[in-house]
Amino acid sequence: MEYQELVDLQGYVKFFLILVVFVVFYSYAFSIYRRNKKGERDFEKYSDLVHNDSISSDPLENRKEKIEEKEKEK
User: What is the DSSP letter of 56?
Assistant: First the structure.
């Protein structure tokens, strides 16, 4: 392979890599938006955790209740 062919190949690989990262990022952002709109998860609680973080804070979610809800659905 000549130098110009390697440079062209490198350009194509970078383009497709950026395209894949773009698609993955926006699909993740859309899934967060959709789950927040449906009410499946409240992401505002998680953003508040950054400002209100201490040892004495209550957990954001109760794991036992979630496990019981999943068992009831089955």
Answer: T
Confidence band for 22, pLDDT divided at 50, 70 and 90 = very high
- The domain total for the chain is 1
Residue 42 confidence (pLDDT) above 70: yes
CA distance 41 to 55: 23
SS3 per residue for 15-49: HHHHHHHHHHHHHHHHHHHHHHHHCCCCHHHHHHH
Full-model pTM: 0.59
Task: Note down the domain range covering 17.
Answer: 3-73
Q: Cβ contacts of residue 61 below 8 Å, gap of 6+?
A: none
- Cα(27)–Cα(48) distance, rounded to whole angstroms? 24
